[in-house]
Amino acid sequence: MDKKSAYLKLMLQQYQEATGSKGILDITTNSGIKELADWLYKRNKIGRMYTSYLDYLNIKFAYNDCAEIGKGAYDTVVKKFETSIITPYDVDIEGVDKERVFVAGFEVDNSKPYLLKGSKKISLPPYVFSKLMTQNNSDINKWKSLHDSGNYSIIIGNYGFTSDKDMDKKLEQIEEFTKALSMDNVVYESDTLGDIYFTVVATKNKVKTRIKTKIKTN
Predict the structure, then answer these.
(1) Are 132 and 67 a contacting pair, CB within 8 Å?
(2) Does residue 210 form part of some domain?
(3) pLDDT grade, residue 206 (50/70/90)?
(4) Under a CB-based contact definition with an 8 Å cutoff, are residues 139 and 172 in contact?
(5) How high is the mean pLDDT of the chain?
(6) Cross-strand bridge partners of residue 143
(7) Burial classification of residue 118, based on how many CB atoms lie within 10 Å of its CB (0-12 exposed, 13-18 middle, 19 or more buried)
(8) Which helix (H) or strand (E) holds 169?
(9) Considering its fold, how many domains does the chain have in total?
(10) Which domain holds residue 38?
(11) Beta bridge partners of 154
(12) How many CB atoms lie within 10 A of CB 61?
């Protein structure tokens, strides 16, 4: 499966989980394409509000010491900022300096973050990125060890409509993750604004100053 198809499949999965749709949306039809596009547009709009929420909470994410993990053109929230993007889904990401996009998978192993590029596993020391953020709740189990190491700050959040079928699950995942953290230097908030919800947990560890460097992924 090519990258574009894999990313579209992921977006369809998220649509299905949020809407509770039991059938697979047929995006070979005009109506199917329109329905998905409308949903993605609304999600993108809430994503912009989410970054304002982080700013309101004084959670620093918009600078080049931070990298967003696992997002693509339709669900990244950091396009207009200095934040880097680590993703295998680099198709159609427009308006972002290429130097900010690292085309790779990501994993946490033994309290350290790594880029995955084919058979290569590339270390991400804290002087490259001292902050890592994600809105992918399913991938956060090992992120606690990043916080516990004292070398990285983490930002894990989510947002959507209060009518989303997967809202309770996402809120519970982040709440349970937060309970497992040592509570020093931790910000945890959940709020609603009309029919929209936001939730985030962020840690503020003392980390080394970022050194501008290039990571070779080829």
Answers:
(1) yes
(2) no
(3) low
(4) no
(5) 89
(6) none
(7) exposed
(8) helix 167-179
(9) 1
(10) 3-203
(11) 132
(12) 24
Distance between CA 50 and CA 67 in Å, rounded? 16
Residue 209 covered by a domain = no
3-state SS class at 153: strand
Q: What is the dihedral of CA 203, 141, 116, 154, to 10 degrees?
A: -10
User: How many residues in total does the chain contain?
Assistant: 218
Distance (Å) of CA 153 to CA 16, 25, 59, 192:
31, 38, 10, 25
The number of angstroms, rounded, from the C-alpha of 125 to the middle of its chain's C-alpha atoms is 19
In terms of Cβ atoms closer than 10 Å to its own Cβ (0-12, 13-18, 19+), residue 185 is: middle
The DSSP symbol for 99 reads G
Q: What token pair was written down for 19?
A: 């809407």
Q: What CATH number corresponds to the domain at position 61?
A: 3.40.50
Is 218 a domain residue? no
Dihedral angle computed from the Cα positions of residues 74, 91, 65 and 45, in that order, rounded to the nearest 10 degrees: -10
Which CA distances in Å does 27 have to 7, 8, 35, 152, 217? 14, 10, 9, 40, 33
Q: Give pLDDT tens digits for 114-163.
A: 999 988 999 998 888 999 999 987 778 899 999 988 899 999 999 999 99
Instruction: Tell me, yes or no, whether 72 lies in a domain.
Output: yes
